[in-house]
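Feature request, filed as a ticket because there's no other form

It would be nice if the structure record came with a short human-readable summary line next to the tokens. Right now we just get the raw output. Example of a typical job, pasted below so the devs can see what we mean:
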Amino acid sequence: MPFISDVLFSETLKKYPQCWGLNNKYVNWQKDGKILADELTVTTNTTITLENVCLKYNGIRKSLMRLNKNPKGKRRTRLGAYLWYAIELGLQHAANRISNDALAYEVRPVKTSESIIQIEPETSESIIKIEPETSESIIQIEPETSESIIKIEPETSELSQKRLSQS
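Raw output as currently delivered:
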């Protein structure tokens, strides 16, 4: 079975309400499911069969039903892409759990007091500077030029002894 992204499957399923199966309504998988499978095949550039779509759909629907039965579970759910579908199915506990998980594990931006500088080696383009919201001095680093680099060898013990004797 090919991998079908949850986000991609969710967005495609949104376009076809006849495949939602609301109020235990019959879904004609031979007709409507085939359309869903064809669109996923075009989007993913991978052959997605009607059987793959049915397995994914049934797995998601069962997971949402199971999540709705146990509203006080402590495990994190990975059904965030299907929050809209849980609401459409009327699964209030599942919808609450998914939204609470999304709020609890939300990635928040980090504010820093120092400038963050991205340095690109040996380019003639200007360097990107990301400034914090506070007003501090701007540091600008120019790209390296084509000047030669002099390599300095570490002093040997004889040279250091001569310098010490001359002092």
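Something like this underneath would help us a lot:
The chain has a mean pLDDT of 75.
DSSP finds six helices and two strands in the chain.
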